[in-house]
Design a protein that fits this description.
The chain is 52% helix and 12% strand. The protein has twelve helices and ten strands.
Length: 474
């Protein structure tokens, strides 16, 4: 039996608005998220996801926002889509295609509130086949089920309360629907929410406010008492704060969660898959190769840093596009309002005298220009942040190269040594992950240099010498 550790946290995935809005994308997400509402979808996703236990699908609970500050049981995903469409119609300004307008949040039930079912799932290789250890026994992993489903529901609703009221710009109204799931490897809640916040000009209108919650924003800065006073708070720093505050919130409510936050796990949206792969590797690797293991750890750590930096750079890039669009909208709005300002100035001149009207007009125009200048300065600061992130990425790449050199050197010492098949499979899998960097083309991604490719070829030779009966393909 594994030791039950009570960790609290959440993952988040964002969706851009696109040219046609997010209605269709919301439908796709809800098809998996609330699959229990349709037996055909439930069977389809159970076939796609080996973690789903079809017999437990009826235990899942789907809810839709009732628009009055609460939720009621959902019977059709169209209810959730209609609620989201109504929210989107309240956004008065045109939404840019690159604007983030939708977020999917996932929070798991702490294992301290679960019961372990050991050896429930088979551990499969990349081809979907059962893995076996050196003794020929199948490798298995545990499943965790809620100790008390009512207790689990209360935990999820309390976590939802924090995320809605303290993180989402639109509060609880921004949550379209939720689904409490008990049919997979660990009980969890999925939360579908928009990034719209109240408009400062119209209490009945909304505006896109994703950067205020998730990325850098010109109005969200460090306090004067902080060493980074008056600088914008980055998206990663905000996430660290959210996890710390969520932990404190759940501890204050008396839940059995650890005081420490596993930030490395929750800062990466693919951490769940990475953790499962790492656990599988531990079960089948038994060789005592300390130098190789240390080099592998160094490479993996450096890669995580590079990936995290790339995510931040992409966020800054997207935010910069959003800010540029907003700046363009502000300029257009200023130009539209300028004739009205002049007309009002003339009216004031007629009513109170030319000089008084002229002074009032100049003051109002100056105020508008000052506001525009402030936005331009904020855009410039975002550009500086993106440049700093790029420099940091280059340094991270240098660190990654050094770690890979150490990894290669350790492997060269193994030439002529017969390695256990499990170790060779693990090393081969990691080299495949490294080669995937060659196809990276998005902002912030790192590609291999010719020198790195040469080292990769030398490493292939070492692996092939140690595993002549193992197929190794790029």
């Amino acid at each position: 039996m594994s030791e039950a550790i009570g960790r609290t946290g959440f993952h988040v995935k964002h969706v851009k608005h696109g040219g046609q809005g997010t209605s269709a994308e919301r439908g796709k997400i809800l098809g998996e998220m609330m699959r229990e509402l349709d037996p055909k979808l439930s069977a389809y996703w159970a076939a796609q996801n080996s973690n789903i236990v079809a017999a437990d699908e009826p235990l899942n609970e789907a809810y839709v926002n009732d628009g009055g500050g609460s939720f009621h049981r959902c019977t059709n995903t169209k209810e959730v889509i209609s609620y989201g469409d109504a929210r989107e119609k309240k956004v008065t300004r045109k939404i840019g295609a690159n604007s983030v307008t939708l977020s999917l949040l996932v929070a798991h039930l702490p294992k301290s509130m679960c019961v372990e079912v050991p050896d429930f799932y088979p551990v499969l290789d990349d081809g979907g086949k059962q893995k076996f250890n050196d003794a020929g026994a199948p490798v298995m992993r545990s499943r965790w089920v809620a100790r008390d489903r009512d207790e689990a529901r209360k935990y999820f609703m309390d976590a939802l309360g924090y995320l809605a009221n303290e993180v989402l710009p639109g509060g609880m109204d921004a949550v379209h629907g939720i689904d409490v799931q008990h049919s997979e490897s660990t009980p969890h809640i999925q939360i579908l929410a928009d990034t719209f916040g109240p408009s400062p000009k119209d209490p009945d209108a909304l505006r896109v406010d994703a950067s205020r919650a998730w990325f850098s924003h010109r109005d969200v800065r460090y306090p004067e008492s902080h060493e980074k006073a008056d600088k914008m708070i980055s998206g990663n720093e905000k996430m660290r704060g959210y996890h710390e505050q969520l932990k404190e919130h759940m501890l204050a409510l008396g839940y059995p969660v650890e005081a420490e936050v596993d930030l490395e796990n929750y800062m990466n949206t693919s951490a769940k898959e990475q953790y499962a792969q790492a656990q599988d590797a531990r079960r089948i690797a038994a060789a005592d190769l300390e130098d190789v293991e240390q080099a592998r750890i160094d490479v993996a750590a450096a890669q995580r840093i590079v990936d995290a930096n790339g995510e931040e750079m992409r966020a800054l890039y997207e935010l910069r596009l959003s800010e540029q669009q907003e700046l363009t909208n502000l300029k257009a709005e200023f130009e539209r309002e300028l004739p009205e300002l002049r007309r009002r100035a003339k009216q004031v001149a007629r009513d109170e005298g030319y000089e008084v009207g002229k002074t009032a007009a100049e003051a109002e125009v100056a105020a508008q220009r000052a506001a525009l200048a402030q936005r331009e300065r904020a855009a410039s600061e975002l550009h500086s942040l993106a440049r700093d992130a790029h420099i940091a990425a280059q340094q991270r790449q240098a660190d990654l190269d050094a770690a890979r050199d150490a990894y290669d050197a350790a492997l060269k010492t193994l030439v002529g040594v017969k390695l256990p098949k499990a170790v060779v499979e693990q090393i081969t899998s990691e080299r495949k992950v490294a080669r995937s960097l060659d196809n990276a083309q998005k902002p912030g991604k790192v590609t291999q240099t010719p020198e790195q490719k040469a080292r990769m070829a030398a490493l292939d030779s070492t692996i092939n010498e140690n595993s002549p009966n193992t197929d190794y393909q790029r």
